[in-house]
UniProtKB/TrEMBL annotation:
PROSITE patterns: ENDONUCLEASE_III_1 (PS00764). This is Adenine DNA glycosylase. Pfam families: EndIII_4Fe-2S, HhH-GPD. Its EC number is 3.2.2.31. Signal peptide: none annotated. SMART domains: ENDO3c, FES. GO terms for biological process: base-excision repair; mismatch repair. GO terms for molecular function: 4 iron, 4 sulfur cluster binding; 8-oxo-7,8-dihydroguanine DNA N-glycosylase activity; adenine/guanine mispair binding; metal ion binding; oxidized purine DNA binding; purine-specific mismatch base pair DNA N-glycosylase activity. Keywords: 4Fe-4S, DNA damage, DNA repair, Glycosidase, Hydrolase, Iron, Iron-sulfur, Metal-binding. It comes from Spinactinospora alkalitolerans. Residues 39-191 form the HhH-GPD domain. It catalyses: Hydrolyzes free adenine bases from 7,8-dihydro-8-oxoguanine:adenine mismatched double-stranded DNA, leaving an apurinic site.
DNA sequence: GAACCGTGGAT
DNA sequence: TATCCAAGGTT
């Protein structure tokens, strides 16, 4: 008995409309799935595609990456954003080699223990790579459920227990079907039930959508503040790291000083990069990507 | 729980 | 041009 009234329609829609993404192919390894999920954190599919291909070509297994210095991962990450994810993936590779014999673990708890792997990513890898039954609650699923089930345009700013309970209540009983349902709802949110200008005419569950039935009311409540970027420490960190990425070796501090005029903010950003392990201060005063 | 952590395309 | 926001996680 399945308590999910949408699964059949969504699964059928997915069969007909799913994108042919490389990390979804049958021959993709769990490592390939893990790499894709980390790269996709807060990053659009279109920008991940070439990065994933290059990464997997260079480091087809965790052992391949574990054998390299962390700085190589940061350099390879290029401009994908949130470069600590590169560090996390490198640390994942070493943990997988040391604790799991070089194979990506299939248990949800072991996945969750990996650096940079949280509630979403652990569920996604366990589901998509190993066919297990876990609730997937990413930004796409949250938006779909907010509309179809709750009747509001957008979910809360941060995931709630209520959302998690709802997602779990909708899980099909059969693990393989549940895993399929997870990607299918995500894909529906990514292609049809989008944040702006949703394509309701193409939606397979429009007849049961609480938000549509309510007349598609606009989001009420405080505006979800956008993060200004210009002038922030993040921008400074990005510029500093770009210098190190684009250099072939260590760089003098003067090269870093050149990217930002304001010295207090510049030093703070550099110190933070060092504290995060993204930059190594060398004994001679130069700076380098981590060894 | 809020703040922080990059980057670039779309509108 | 400015804002939104994209398969989150950590502190």
């Amino acid at each position: 008995m399945n308590e999910n009234p949408y699964s059949a329609a969504v699964l059928a829609w997915y069969e007909a409309n799913a994108r042919d993404l490389p990390w979804r192919r049958a021959d993709t390894t769990p490592w390939g799935v893990l790499v894709s999920e980390v790269m996709l954190q807060q990053t659009p599919v279109a920008r991940v595609l070439p990065a994933w291909e290059a990464w997997m070509r260079r480091w087809p297994t965790p052992a391949d990456l574990a054998a390299e210095p962390a700085g190589e991962a940061v350099r390879m990450w290029n401009r994908l954003g949130y470069p600590r994810r590169a560090l996390n993936l490198h640390a994942c590779a070493r943990a997988i080699v040391e604790r799991h014999g070089g194979r990506v673990p299939d248990s949800h708890a072991d996945l969750l223990a990996l650096p940079g792997v949280g509630a979403y990513t652990s569920a996604a890898v366990a589901g998509f790579a190993f066919g297990q039954r876990h609730a997937i609650l990413d930004t796409n699923v949250r938006r779909v459920l907010a509309r179809v089930e709750t009747g509001v345009e957008y979910p809360p700013k941060t995931p709630t227990r209520s959302e998690a309970r709802l997602a779990e209540s909708l899980l099909p009983p059969e693990p393989a079907v549940a895993a399929r349902w997870g990607v299918a709802v995500m894909e529906l949110g990514a292609l049809v039930c989008t944040a702006r200008s949703p394509k309701c005419a193409e939606c397979p569950v429009i007849d049961g959508c609480a938000w549509v039935l309510a007349g598609r009311p606009a989001h009420d409540g405080p505006p979800r503040r956008g993060q200004t970027y210009a002038g922030t420490d993040r921008q400074v960190r990005g510029r500093l790291l770009a210098v190190l990425r684009d250099a072939t070796g260590p760089v003098p501090k003067s090269a870093l000083d050149a990217v930002w005029d304001e010295p207090v903010q510049r030093e703070r950003a550099l110190d933070a990069l060092v504290a995060d392990g993204l930059v190594d201060p060398l004994e001679d005063g130069d700076y380098a990507l981590p060894a």
